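Page 42, continued from yesterday. The earlier attempt failed because a stray header line got pasted into the input along with the sequence. Redoing it now with the clean sequence only.
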Amino acid sequence: MSIIRWDPIGDIARIRNEMDRMMSDLMGGVTGSGWLPAMDICDMDDAFIVKVDLPGISKENVEITTTENMIRIKGEARREEHTERRSCFRHERMAGSFERAVSLPAKIKPDETKASFKDGVLEIRLPKAEKTRREEHRVEVESQ
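This time it went through. Structure tokens are written below.
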């Protein structure tokens, strides 16, 4: 019998990603996704604050759209291309496209949504509103 080293952090991350993917597939939140970035959504008095971990992804590879009660974040993480032959014995960094769509518990102002990217974390501020239009609004990501 051989001893196998336990990796609790890796196991928890894999389980969370699998649960997110299963739930999103059931709810229709993710289409064709190979991975899901970690996301926090905080309900403030006047806005929702969304933070998404996107290390190694440039703002040009992220698309954010909003409606009065939903936010959708799409993007792609690309694997590094190596010109010399390499023998990697472990690949854990995520690559490929992702898509997250989340329904919000209150209406927002899609045209006033702001997004910024700093240190691999995408932060989106979604101001709350009483009445808004039902059209989709694209949000540009600013560098800090």
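Notes: The first strand starts at residue 39 and ends at 43.
Reminder to self: strip header lines before submitting.
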